């Protein structure tokens, strides 16, 4: 079946079998992933993550899904990448769906074109599991989602303020959510926020955003990227969102290297294609091999699962994206 974001987030606790999430809305992806991970933790479900670099790695995914977990009765496998299963892996997928009712395969992919959505992989999961497009095409859908985010932090916007917020961020919901958080910090005692308060708050505080960081990283400007990173940390930007930005850019560059003719299909905006192509010419593809492990180390450090300093590791990743290396051994 196909579920939209709001339907999907209500069914996280009951998710089993196979799910695919695909799209270009980082807020929706991050919220759903956070909801899944919290649910797995609450229900003592073991989580494993796989970042696919080639189609042969699907074998590892299905081997894990079909194995008994040593740590819990149920297992959740989180798969990131834009590599669909081949015929053999698709056969394993069908066997898994038919015979394993307790585990969960959650596949997170970038935006897919119409031909990908008609592929055997998507058709199989849609017929036997759940496909969630991470999109919100209409203003009422975006406002409904952002209203839920506002409720979490105790912010209520007047209708004209909602309209201005969307236009200000060009319908980017992650940036809009970050602005709502700034509004909550700036006007903690106001029950209703209008345009004037919104403008005053954002014009005063939003000097840099994660989107500025993305642009600087792709341009290879290390000093500017570190400056933006430090500003974001000082202004209270969650490290997990900064990590999401870095991992997105790394993933896009790795995918563009593998599929140089498919820039638009893998999720690069048309007006940004040349910048990514220039970044590829600047970078050594051998660096890509170390990126997945570095991202996992950053994720673990942010969650307190290691003794490494997350800010140092994030700066190392920033340098890698800019074609430099920090902390040489």
Structural class: alpha/beta
Might you state the CATH topology name of the largest domain?
Rossmann fold
**What does the overall shape look like?**
globular
The name of the CATH superfamily of the largest domain reads P-loop containing nucleotide triphosphate hydrolases
Widest β-sheet, arrangement of strands: 2-3-4-1-5
End-to-end separation in angstroms reads 50 Å
Write down how many β-strands occur, each being a DSSP E stretch of 2 or more residues.
Answer: 5
Mean pLDDT over the residues: 86
Question: What would CATH call the architecture of the largest domain?
Answer: 3-Layer(aba) Sandwich
Salient structural properties:
single chain, 329 residues, alpha/beta, Rossmann fold, Helicase, Ruva Protein, domain 3, Zinc Finger, Delta Prime, domain 3, 3 domains, five-stranded parallel sheet, 5 strands
Mind explaining what this structure looks like?
By secondary structure, this protein is α/β, with parallel strands linked by helices. It folds into three domains: 5-134, Rossmann fold (3-Layer(aba) Sandwich); 139-205, Helicase, Ruva Protein, domain 3 (Orthogonal Bundle); 210-321, Zinc Finger, Delta Prime, domain 3, CATH 1.20.272.10. The chain is built from 16 helices and five strands. It has a five-stranded parallel sheet, sandwiched between helices. The protein is globular and about 60 Å long. The N and C termini lie far apart (50 Å). The relative contact order is 0.10.
């Amino acid at each position: 079946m196909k579920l939209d974001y709001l339907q999907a987030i209500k069914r996280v606790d009951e998710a089993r079998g196979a799910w695919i999430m695909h799209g270009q809305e980082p807020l929706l992806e991050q919220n759903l992933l956070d909801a899944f991970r919290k649910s797995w933790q609450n229900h003592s479900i073991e989580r494993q993550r796989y970042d696919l670099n080639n189609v042969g790695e699907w074998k590892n995914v299905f081997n894990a899904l079909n194995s008994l977990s040593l740590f819990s009765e149920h297992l959740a496998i989180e798969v990131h990448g834009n590599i669909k299963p081949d015929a053999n892996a698709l056969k394993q997928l069908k066997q898994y769906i038919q015979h394993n009712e307790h585990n969960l395969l959650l596949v997170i992919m970038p935006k897919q074109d119409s031909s990908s959505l008609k592929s055997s992989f998507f058709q199989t999961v849609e017929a036997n599991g759940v496909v969630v497009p991470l999109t919100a095409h209409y203003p009422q859908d975006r406002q409904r989602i952002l209203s839920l985010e506002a409720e979490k932090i105790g912010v209520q916007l007047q209708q004209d303020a909602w309209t201005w917020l969307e236009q200000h961020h060009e319908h980017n919901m992650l940036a809009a959510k970050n602005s709502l958080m700034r509004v909550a910090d700036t006007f903690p005692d106001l029950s209703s926020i209008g345009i004037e308060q919104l403008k005053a708050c954002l014009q005063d505080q939003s000097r840099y955003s994660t989107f500025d960081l993305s642009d600087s990283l792709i341009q290879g400007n290390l000093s500017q990227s570190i400056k933006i990173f430090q500003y974001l940390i000082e202004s209270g930007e969650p490290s997990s969102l900064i990590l999401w930005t870095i991992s997105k850019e790394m993933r896009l560059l790795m995918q563009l290297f593998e599929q140089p003719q498919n820039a638009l299909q893998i999720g690069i905006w048309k007006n940004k294609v040349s910048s990514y192509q220039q970044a590829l010419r600047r970078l050594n593809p051998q660096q890509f091999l170390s990126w997945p492990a570095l991202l996992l180390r950053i994720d673990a450090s942010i969650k307190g699962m290691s003794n490494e300093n997350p800010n140092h590791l994030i700066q190392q990743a920033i340098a890698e994206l800019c074609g430099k290396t920090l902390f040489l051994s």
